Amino acid sequence: MNWLGDVRSGFRALAKNPGFTAVAVAMLALGIGINATVFTVADAVLFKGFPTVAGNDRLLYISHGGCCISYPDFQDIRAQAKSFQGMGITHGMETAQVLDRGNTGTWFAFGRLRDGVSFAGATAETEGIIRRLETEYPVTDRREHLVAQNFAQFFIGANAAVIYGSMWGAVGFVLLIACANLANLMLARAAECLDGGSPNGACAPTLWR
What we know:
Elements: H1 3-15, H2 18-47, E1 59-63, H3 71-80, E2 84-90, E3 108-113, H4 119-136, H5 138-144, E4 147-149, H6 151-155, H7 160-194
Antiparallel strand pairs: 1-3, 1-4, 2-3
Helix pairs in contact: 2-7, 3-4, 4-5
């Protein structure tokens, strides 16, 4: 089979039908463009962290269900962990309550990983420290049961992988619709050719190769 000749024949046939070609190309371009835009925006917003924060893709979050870490526990983790180049904590509590290890309030901690440190390595080190603190302070820290999570795990939760897979499924479905519409368009064109409705030669036999 001379595939190069088939390609040339196909291009000649398309050139004889600029209207059909324009509609087909626009249909595919629209489907691909919509998919690319939606996926890029959703991926950036849902899975890549805060775009205005430098190094946001290197942040690890430490909390229990999105909150509940005491400031003394944060201090211990910050002092012992070697995986982070810096750590911070957010809170809504009064300063006078900060030093109470049992007062977790609505706090969560976060740290930016050092260069060369993986999320898996940082998570293992951090949770090792957390388990030691639970042993040292069983009354308060075992109640918290802190965990270290990446952006998707912390802000989206256990269904992050399901949501991500659903996005890929939606992308494939939209492309399938675009391809189905294009196939219907080509079938309609083929029916027109069989009825002799193309006097300009655009339905030459080479098109069917």
